[in-house]
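Weekly sync, protein design subgroup
Attendees: M.S., D.O., the rotation student, P.L. (late)

Item 1: inverse folding check
M.S. brought a backbone from last month's batch and wanted to see whether the design step gives back something sensible before we order anything. D.O. pointed out we never logged the input encoding, so this time it goes straight into the notes. Structure tokens as presented (504 positions):
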């Protein structure tokens, strides 16, 4: 038998552009779960969110302290007010509270018959407090056939089947299959309540609606205690995206990565002392001036530690560095500066303003001046090879590749470590030389003195500022490429300082 299965990932979304999605759920005044989470989740996926409130809770990230269920007549009035006026593309059902509320929702669903119904059979909050009376569990089962997708967590799945909670993923899938077969709908089995490094989810349908009975989507487990409202957020996101894709697997494949990032960024919200909310709008975070440079600095700092651990740096500082190693370093630096100068010229060519154009053009010229200074004053008296070393070659090739194929922003990110790390290392080396009383008999005294160059420190500050500004104007894809180009150049900076080790 051929399954009534339509292809995943249609090139053009078949559904509405802005799905009108109704959440029938309880209120969480702390904003992480219930209708508050649903509305954020719906909006985060491009839907228009609506909410009919079944119950009010007094809760925060730690516990639920009170639940108030208003008269069901008032719920009916809310639901009718919406459906009498507005076409509803999808409904997500969350906390229902008691059997009277369930009956009211059932009658309304039977009357209105929304095209997409996702039922999250909420029973217990993350904090462990009950959100559905035990006596209403039977009534809840009567609602299940009216839903297209059920999203129970493992304890809820067990209660719906009247069985003990699944101890592992295989038994959870087995329970999911039995629930799907009993009620004729699709069940999302969620791995959130299991332990282990992975956190899988699986769509289960035994009547041929999916491409196979169990469609599992693997995923990592994010190390966070902020899981308040993940179930609410997931189910309302799925309801919204389903209107656009018409395919549960495609919907889950879109929503799961979003939820993972929402969990990953949850800490930045800093909400509450318990299990905090997820960051629904992590993907729309506004980048402020300085933010991107701060991210880059985190990477650069780790590399700086590696550089300070190198024998070459230690030798320069103490004066014990073999002369051959220092000569090799100088010769490679001269070769490098020639290539680097061309890349700075490329930055100048791409610069959006004349000031920036001039800044990089000056930098490009100065590289050539320093190169000839190296030859005149440092290399002319030394017997060193002029062959381009492998690290020098790779570093310059990386920069040239970025300048050949990258945007202005990416070229700046690739250029920056040479300013930033060199300035930091130089400042540190010069600082410890001065601290030691600027000994004139230090083998590398003359070289260490060149690091006290305020003009270079100022140019480094400008280069950082321009890179940060370019990141603000760049697309997310370009910003990711900037991080990659910067990280690679940082690694080459370390390798460059380490390359003379063969002479030690
Ligand atoms: N630590 C985690 N890392 C990655 N994904 C997670 C994590 N915790 C939960 N999830 C995901 O979150 C979604 C909800 O799963 P969970 O089993 O926690 O539901 P729930 O118990 O109904 O949620 P709630 O906390 O709202 O009650 C699933 O997609 C699950 O895979
Ligand atoms: C209102 C409400 N609905 C659902 C949950 C489950 O996360 C909660 N904590 N609060």
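Designed sequence read out in the meeting:
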């Amino acid at each position: 038998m051929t399954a009534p299965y339509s292809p995943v990932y249609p090139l053009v979304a078949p559904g509405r552009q802005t799905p009108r999605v109704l959440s029938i759920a309880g209120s969480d005044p702390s904003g992480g779960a219930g209708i508050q989470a649903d509305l954020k989740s719906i909006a985060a996926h491009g839907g228009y969110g609506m909410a009919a409130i079944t119950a009010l809770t007094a809760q925060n990230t730690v516990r639920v302290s009170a639940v108030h269920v208003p008269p069901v007549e008032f719920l009916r009035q809310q639901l009718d007010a919406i459906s009498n006026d507005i076409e509803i593309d999808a409904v997500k059902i969350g906390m229902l509270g008691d059997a009277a509320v369930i009956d009211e929702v059932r009658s309304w669903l039977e009357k209105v018959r929304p095209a997409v119904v996702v039922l999250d059979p909420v029973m217990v909050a993350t904090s462990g407090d009950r959100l559905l009376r035990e006596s209403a569990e039977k009534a809840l089962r009567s609602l299940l056939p009216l839903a297209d997708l059920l999203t129970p967590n493992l304890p809820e799945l067990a209660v719906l089947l009247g069985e003990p909670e699944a101890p592992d993923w295989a038994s959870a899938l087995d329970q999911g299959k039995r629930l799907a077969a009993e009620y004729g709908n699709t069940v999302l089995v969620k791995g959130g309540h299991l332990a282990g490094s992975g956190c899988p989810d699986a769509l289960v349908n035994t009547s041929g609606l999916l491409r196979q009975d169990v469609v599992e989507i693997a995923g990592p487990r994010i190390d966070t205690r902020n899981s308040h409202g993940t179930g609410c957020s997931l189910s309302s996101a799925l309801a919204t995206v389903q209107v656009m894709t018409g395919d549960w697997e495609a919907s889950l494949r879109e929503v799961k990565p979003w939820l993972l990032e929402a969990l990953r960024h949850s800490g930045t919200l800093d909400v509450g002392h318990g299990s905090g909310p997820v960051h629904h709008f992590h993907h729309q975070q506004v980048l402020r001036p300085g933010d991107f440079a701060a991210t880059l600095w985190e990477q650069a700092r780790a590399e700086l530690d590696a550089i300070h651990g190198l024998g070459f740096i230690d030798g320069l500082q103490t004066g014990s560095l073999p002369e051959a190693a220092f000569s090799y370093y100088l010769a490679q630096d001269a070769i490098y500066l020639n290539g680097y100068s061309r890349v700075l010229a490329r930055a100048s060519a791409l610069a959006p303003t004349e000031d920036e154009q001039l800044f990089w053009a000056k930098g490009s010229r100065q590289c050539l001046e320093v190169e000839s200074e190296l030859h005149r004053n440092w290399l002319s008296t030394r017997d060193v090879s002029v062959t381009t070393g492998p690290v020098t070659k790779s570093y310059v090739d990386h920069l040239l590749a970025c300048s050949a194929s990258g945007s202005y922003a990416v070229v700046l990110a690739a250029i920056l470590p040479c300013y930033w790390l060199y300035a930091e290392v130089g400042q540190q080396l010069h600082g410890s030389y001065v601290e030691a009383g600027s000994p004139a008999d230090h083998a590398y005294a003359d070289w260490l003195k060149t690091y006290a160059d305020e003009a270079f420190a100022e140019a480094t500050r400008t280069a950082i500022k321009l890179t940060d500004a370019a990141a603000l104007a760049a697309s997310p894809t370009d910003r990711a490429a900037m991080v990659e180009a910067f990280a690679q150049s940082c690694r080459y900076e370390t390798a460059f300082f380490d390359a003379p080790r063969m002479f030690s």
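Discussion: The pocket of adenosine-5'-triphosphate (ligand 1) is lined by residues 33, 126, 153, 190-193, 199, 201, 221-222, 224, 227, 229-232, 234, 259-260, 263 (CB under 6 Å). The mean pLDDT is 94.
Action: P.L. to compare against the previous round before Friday.
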